[in-house]
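Worked Example 4.2. Consider the chain below.
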Amino acid sequence: MLDMQVLQIYRLNINNEHLEKTQNMVNKLYDIISKVMKISPSQINDRTGPENIENWDSFNGLVLVDKLELEFKIKFTLEEIQDVKNISDIKRHLRNHGVKIE
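Applying the procedure from the previous section yields the following structure tokens:
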């Protein structure tokens, strides 16, 4: 009985650590976006993109790509860059590169 309780506590800790890591990655992503686009992180959600951020022009889009590649140590393909319509797309491409993000 004690072994089951220990196992359940261990599983809860593992799940909490995973959630904390993915949330930290989201915070890191939102921080980068807010700095590049000069907006508050509170204005960012999965549907945020060039259509609803005035500063998200082609130049800042490339600056964002550069900052993300440096921070997450990845390299986006041209197709991935052209595919981005919102933050949800960025998260999907980050996950495809092995970044643990929700």
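The chain has one domain: 2-96. The mean pLDDT is 86. Compare this with Example 4.1 before moving on.
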